[in-house]
Amino acid sequence: MFRTSVPVLMACALPLGAVAAESYEFDAAHSFAHFSVVHLGMSTIHGRFDRVSGKLTLDRSAKTGDLVVKVATASLNTGDPKQESGSLVSKANGPRSRDETLRSGDFFNVAEFPDATFKSTRFNFSGDSLESVDGTLTLLGATKPIKLTVTQFRCGPHPFNKKEMCGADAVAQFKRSDFGMKSGLTAISDEVKVTFDVEAYKQ
Amino acid sequence: MTQMDHLLAHPAFQAAIAPFFAALVVAAALRRTQLIGLAVVCAFAVAVGLTMGYTFETFTAVRKLEVTGLGTPILIVALALTRLHRNERVRLALDLALAASVPWLLWRVLQQQEAANAMLKGLASAAFAALLLDAALRCGSDSIRSALTGLMLGLAVAVLAFLSASLVLGQWAVAVAAGSAAALLVLLAAPTTSQGAAGLALPGAVICALAALLAVFTGSLPWFCLLPLPAIPWATRLVPQDLERRWRTASLSLLACLPAVALAVGLAWFAGSSST
């Protein structure tokens, strides 16, 4: 009996192990990346990337996972999309807005590098809760290690449509000069804080 | 930050003051040689060092422009040694070489576009660069015209780059203008002019052509703002050479360039103000 039951148990366990890793895809309507820099050492300027996509594979029992986040850099928005002709700001700074300046070759260089990508290398759990994700950030064609500190992570059914979903807030900090973004370092801080606020549905 | 750090970090010092004085020293040392064009490259090198530095995290289009600009001394020395600067075929070869470098420069930008669109833009950009360099090299044997061409092209492209939202490209173009101005000053003050006209026009035209293209492709400058630029070197040839009255000739040549510069800047300003 023992001989027959072992293979049966193993056969039953295989699908369970395969199910343990769950795949999620970002909900574009509720997933954003925010960034902030210090301007002139005086105040903090915030910006947002409106288009963020990504995939998460999570095995909570094995405490492993895989995360890929892609940010469309041209979708950045700091609240200054276009200066009005004749306005005081336009007279002082010329006809180009802050968002246009940030999209130019001096900063995010969106014409050459339309995407910034985060790829995980390791998920770090504290007990059952996800604490941080180690990975690499590819920005302006340069790839550097970075740690995403997870400030909030929760999974469960959507309250209305009951689809399984996960939501997370995570924060990271890096020096933009490490990625070759060296313009305006005296006026705009080298340290950039990035926050990912995402929701993802189970596939 | 110390006082010196503040000075080194100031955009005007990085783009104009430091490059000008560095170029002045080089131009004064090389004023009787055909290598006076190295003064413009020196100004550019100083500006690159102070703005972006020489670390290459990624080989971006701006870094390719940097390498191309810093590579022009090879051609300046070759022109000086072979004395081929008046040879039509050499001029054509230089035009074609610059045209061929344009798709390489813009490769990553063009990759993001549809093939037909990318090919059209690549060819048009190559033609523009070749046309601008050809016009600059046609300044003949007059070094003062060549220096004026670099000065006015540098100023025009600097304003276009600033209006296209790129400070770095603008600073580098200002450095070309500063280097050319330093060479011009030395040439006007010296009793005899050097014969390095082609070598003097070459770096300024190459750097300005590529910087202007990057202002279009990586900034937000409309392409038609570049059309008046080849008229700048052409305008310097409207005023006849007069070595006896160099200051007067230079002033008139400078004035002759102004309509083309004003047209390019005006187009960029109004395009920027009216775009949605």
Briefly summarize what is shown.
The complex is a heterodimer of chains A (203) and B (276). Chain A has 203 residues and is of the alpha+beta class.
Task: Give an overview in words.
Chain A is α+β, with helices and mostly antiparallel strands and 203 residues long. Chain A has a domain at 22-73 and 114-202: Beta Barrel (Lipocalin). Chain A has helices at residues 2-20, 88-93, 98-103, and strands at 21-26, 32-39, 43-49, 52-59, 64-72, 76-77, 115-126, 129-139, 142-157, 164-175, 191-202. An eight-stranded antiparallel barrel of chain A has the order 1-4-5-7-8-9-10-11. In chain A, β2 and β3 form a beta hairpin. The longest helix of chain A is centred in the N-terminal third of the chain and has 19 residues, at 2-20. Chain A is globular, with a radius of gyration of 21 Å. Chain A starts with a helix and ends with a strand. Chain B has one domain (3-275). Helices cover 75% and strands 0% of the residues of chain B. Chain B has twelve helices and no strands. Chain B has helices at residues 3-9, 11-29, 38-51, 61-82, 88-105, 107-111, 115-137, 143-163, 167-189, 197-217, 231-236, 246-274. The longest helix of chain B has 29 residues, at 246-274. Chain B starts with a helix and ends with a helix. The model of chain B has no long low-confidence stretch (mean pLDDT 89). Chain A binds chain B through residues 82, 85-86, 90, 94-97, 100-101, 103-106, 109, 111-114, 140-142, 178-180, 182-186, and chain B through 9, 51-53, 55-62, 108-109, 112, 162-169, 214, 217-220, 269, 271-276.
Low-confidence stretches of chain B: none
Continuous helix count of chain A: 3
Number of strands of chain B: 0
Give the full name of the CATH homologous superfamily of the domain at 22-73 and 114-202 in chain A: Lipid/polyisoprenoid-binding, YceI-like
Report how far the terminal alpha carbons of chain A are from each other.
Answer: 39 Å
Largest sheet of chain A: 8 strands, antiparallel, barrel
Question: What kind of oligomer do you see?
Answer: heterodimer
Spatial shape of chain B: globular
CATH class of the domain at 22-73 and 114-202 in chain A: Mainly Beta
Per DSSP E runs of 2 or more residues, the count of β-strands of chain A stands at 11
Order of helices and strands of chain A: HEEEEEEHHEEEEE
Q: Which structural class fits the helix and strand makeup of chain B?
A: mainly alpha
Count of helices of chain B?
12
- Determine the fraction of residues in helical runs of chain A and give it as a percent range: 10-25%
